[in-house]
Amino acid sequence: MNNGRYNINVNEVASKRNWLRTHFPLGKDSFGAIQDKLRQRPRNVMKPSFPRSEVRRMDKAPLKEVPERIIDKERGITYIRGKFLGKGGFARCYELTNAATNELFAGKIVSKTLLVKPYQREKMTQEVQIHRNLSHPHVVQLYNFFEDSDNVYITLELCARRSLMELHKRRRSVTEPEARYFVHQVCLAVDYLHDKKVIHRDLKLGNLFLNGDLQVKIGDFGLATTVDMEGERKKTLCGTPNYIAPEVLDKKGHSFEVDIWAIGCILYTLLFGRPPFETKSLKETYSRIKMNQYRVPSNAGQVVSHLIQNLLAADPAKRPTVKQIVSELIPTFK
Asked: For 321, left (φ over 0), alpha (ψ -120 to 50), or beta?
């Protein structure tokens, strides 16, 4: 600690388990106990976002079973299908093992019977095109993309500790040092994405995966888009209700600032156990978002309150850039 500020090199975290145990005690459970419990749960579940009508179709329509041996003919690689990890939207996810090297991957598998409409194929193609060009320590790595007569396959980095959503469900809230640790890594990844002109547009706890060393990895680029021209504003209504920015709801155009808003929602949820605008109805949640109606608990520190207010500024132009968050705001958040 330097003048009351923590200086964390996230790339050294994996080799500093004792430091983590000291600075990030996980409530009643030890650091090791949390790892053991998370290890017992299904691993990295990549959940692409599709319209609800299509999700219902997947639940009702019988799909052909995924083969036990999956062959990437172009690269001459055979994968052995392992445990089922989960499903979301069109995709079923399995643990895959490279038969030659025994390397483990997360396999995102989509039946071609669910990709019959042009917009469905275009959506998946865009997701792969964006994700395959990304390489960062805090972004889930996409390795390969191939197909056979029945399915489309995407092989991804396997994140053994699932996501921050699982940690949130167990703990409800985390300490300020823990929140700073996680949010700092999210910001590093988002800074990289924005430099690459990519807006994620669906940042939330469920899309923040954790590897074996509890390092954050941003995944699921199903709603991601690229900014091709300076000042370009997107007008697609998309995102997850509790994390969606007001300018998206207003349909006046949005850009990189929606990711900053989502980081604010993530920070708030980690610290206080629930999203800032959450209500029992979607209509009321959207109303509160548009009115910027939320409350920071009275037990929150002044620095935390100030940071959240900056991230959740109603006017996107008044939100800090992710570079400002990393260089100016995060260092003051102890």
From this structure: beta
Residues 167, 214 contacting (CB under 8 angstroms):
no
- Give 216-241 pLDDT, tens digit per residue: 999 999 899 999 888 788 988 888 99
Exposure letters 10-34 (e unless 16+ CB within 10 A, then b): eeebeeeeeebeebbebeeeebeeb
Of 191, 202, 220, 259, catalytic: 202
Of 130, 157, 184, the last residue of a domain is 157
User: Which domain, by its residues, includes 122?
Assistant: 69-157
Task: Give the confidence band of 31 by pLDDT, cuts at 50, 70, 90.
Answer: very low
**Any idea what the CATH number is for the domain that residue 127 is in?**
3.30.200.20
155 has a pLDDT exceeding 50:
yes
Residue 30 in domain = no
In a domain, 6, yes or no: no
Annotated catalytic residue 150: no
pLDDT tens digits for 178-216? 999 999 999 999 999 999 999 999 999 999 999 999 999
Q: How far is CA 10 from CA 6, 23, 31, 213, 320, in A?
A: 12, 14, 17, 11, 22
Q: Which of 101, 136, 157 is the last residue of a domain?
A: 157
Structure tokens at 1: 């600690």
The whole-model pTM stands at: 0.78
Give the annotated binding-site residues for ATP: 108
